[in-house]
């Protein structure tokens, strides 16, 4: 879900006027900060791909709707993007041991299973089970913790918990999948993006 250099300029992610959120802008900000410490300048323009960015933007909207807090929604998505970028950098710089590469493959399979479940619960009405999806997301969280255990700080592990505990919250999932709720159009766009990533073998 992370791609090579993109050179286009991106505007600020949050403005003082209308509610403006851009995951690509947040990704660029996070990467500049992270890469100034741990990676070469040749990586400085690496951004999340367009499809993932669109999914993240929709996740921001539904998170803001559920939490009733622009600030909290922004923080959750910022934490998500920081974690994704840090893992991507570790992977590209071959920082994972053979044992950790095995965990990477387990995580890929679990993310694939979770992604297909998210889409299936949307496409097939009345199949949604919030406990099943919550369990899958918590299993993804545990694998991420295991993968980065020796690489990242307790603060980053806190970010991982912050992100997954929100998205795995059964009340949030119920809001997201409500058949007559305000989030239905957002869920449709999220699933369209996930389907595209599945077709492209990204997930």
UniProtKB/TrEMBL annotation:
Protein name: Tumor necrosis factor alpha-induced protein 8-like protein 3
InterPro entries xrefs: TNFAIP8-like, TNFAIP8_sf
Sequence segments annotated as region (Disordered): 1-20
Gene3D superfamilies per UniProt: Tumor necrosis factor alpha-induced protein 8-like
Gene expressing this chain: TNFAIP8L3
Superkingdom of origin: Eukaryota
GO BP, sorted A to Z: regulation of apoptotic process
GO cellular component assignments: cytoplasm
Species name: Panthera pardus (Leopard)
